[in-house]
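Record type: ASSEMBLY
Status: queued
Input:
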Amino acid sequence: MNFLTLSLKSAWHRKTPLLLAALSVAISFALLFGVDTVRKQAKDNFLNTVSQTDLIVGARTGPVNLLLYSVFHLGQPTNNMGYDTYRFLQKHPQTQWAIPLSLGDSHRGFRVIGTQGHFFDHYRHAQGQPLVFERGERFNDLYEVVIGAQVAAELNYQPGDRLLLSHGVAARAEASLPEHDDKPFRVSGILAPTGTPLDRTLQVSLRALEAIHLDWQSGRPSPLKLSPELARKLVPEPTEITAVMVGLTDKIQTFRLQRQINAYQPEPIMAILPGATLARFWQSLRHFEQAFMLLSWGVFVAALTGILISLLNNLHQRRHEIALLRAIGMHRRGILGLFWLDTLLIMLGGFILGIGLLQAGLWLLQPWLLSHYGLSIGFFLPDVGQLKMALMALGAALLISTLPGWLAARNNLKKGLQP
Amino acid sequence: MSQAFELENLRFGWPGTKHDLLQIEHLALQTGKHLFIQGASGSGKSTLLNLLCGVLLPQSGQIRVLDQDLTQYASARRDRFRADHLGIIFQQFNLLPYLTPVQNCLLPLTFSAKRRKQCPSPEKTAIAYLQQLNLPNHLLQVPSKNLSIGQQQRVAIARALIGQPDLIIADEPTSALDAAHRDRFMQCLFEAAEEHHTSIVFVSHDLSLASEFDHQYVLPEPPGRKTEGSE
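Status: finished
Output:
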């Protein structure tokens, strides 16, 4: 029997305290990897909200502001832009496609996006994934609406259901808004989850928005009522929209076109590069990220303290064993080895248990995370960065376990063989 | 004739104490002989054994074990020397409770290539020793924690003897045993040592055992006494 098998047998003999220590390490590893994974994948989700859109154009405002209200539907657009400008962008020789977006109405707390049918052809999220209809299809009729996955799930809508749009966007979901109650919409389709804010929106055609506002004046229903069918006949071209998403034929032209748009004479508009603006915005959220990581490391320090306590408890129990091993010729450094091996076993066991724990936890939480936060978090094995964290933790644990090892060695020197 | 061990002008005191615990001008034992060391508790019996084992070093003087001066060796070399040449029996806790008696017997081979070489078929030898020491067969392969104290001490003899060490050092090995078990232990120890021509240093406060040994030595009361216990 060599020293290693001997030490392993000894560890097996003390398996209960070791297992408990490993469990506390496992929880720490699960938390550490969990927070790190959520952090990274939330960032990916965030940065993946718009993909393959080269420019977003809107009324002149701050770049982050334009990004937030056009893509994340956060805050209010300060100004609209003319539909003529959209036509200009659409006809521009460098434009491959241009999608108009018109915001301002809502349905029970969810935003309504006025757009056009080719929105569903060109909108891309994640790494260029197109929109997929879970059920039904895009809007074809004027009074048809497509709803996002979360809207469908929370309000339990099926294709064919009828719903009313409200005028304006409420600060709180329960606030009452005037409804376009004479012109109900029929759900034509439900989008599959995308993990983006789009899941919490409804999409109708630009002309539909014009139609329901036809008999409204300055934000209120006018006394003159038009029936849905009459409105259908009278509906004019839109005059204003909120923003335009633009895809270019040649990416190299992006900056040139951006400058050209920023200098557009007929009205003050601006163009932003969504990827760059998203990245800049994420930078400003870095403090939250750091706070979470700090918290996880704090939990880890608690687990290391747990290891230390368990090893110190062992110190007394193991003095006969150590005396015996010394008597048969083990060097005093071997005592340190015994404690290190214990720590190594605890950390290794904790690492494997922790991965299992995190996998199980995320598997259980996945549906909830997706439905409440639109987060699609997956974890299978730690990535390189997380392995580095694990190695650092192992280093710290070995360093800490040097203390009981050193105490035992010193005790041995002071008292000789017989404890 | 060569010496099993020889002490010359030995002085040892625990750090932080005023007086030396041990002061021995000369003490030696011839190879193959058996020495009984008697001393009151606190007289430094265990300390003397730790010195002989190379675990502790004296403040001054020479410790020659098997004609090698331990005080000249670094600690790693003393550890190797102990692994190769000595068999040690404690008062109790001689076995690792999670190993079987046979596995416990084989422990000294872990750290000593010399003893591995001197014991070509370790398992067989261990079983033979244990049977010779009257350990019941059904206990050979069960965890040692199931053994009685008397049985455990006999396994300790087998463990000390495996791989043919030159010197057996026993620290009050019988003090946890009743009279019948004690006699049996002593008989086993002497038979085994005789067979392998092994020297024995045996420490005890039990004077009734002294007559069975070739030589006896009484540790003097330390000067300025009752400071540190050695046990």
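Annotation: The two ends of chain A are 25 Å apart (CA to CA).
Annotation: Residues 50-283 of chain A form one domain.
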